[in-house]
Amino acid sequence: MLHPCLSCGACCAFFRVAFHWSEADASLGGVVPPERTEKLDPHRLVMRGTQASRPRCTALQGAVGEAAHCGIYEQRPSVCREVEPSWEFGRPSAQCDKARLGHGLPVLTAADWTLAAGA
Question: What is the DSSP string of the chain?
Answer without folding.
Answer: ---GGGG--TGGGTS--EEEGGGG-GGGT--S-GGGEEE-SSSEEEETTTTSSS---TTEEEETTTEEEETTGGG--HHHHHPPPTTTTSS--HHHHHHHHHTTPPPP-HHHHHHHHH-
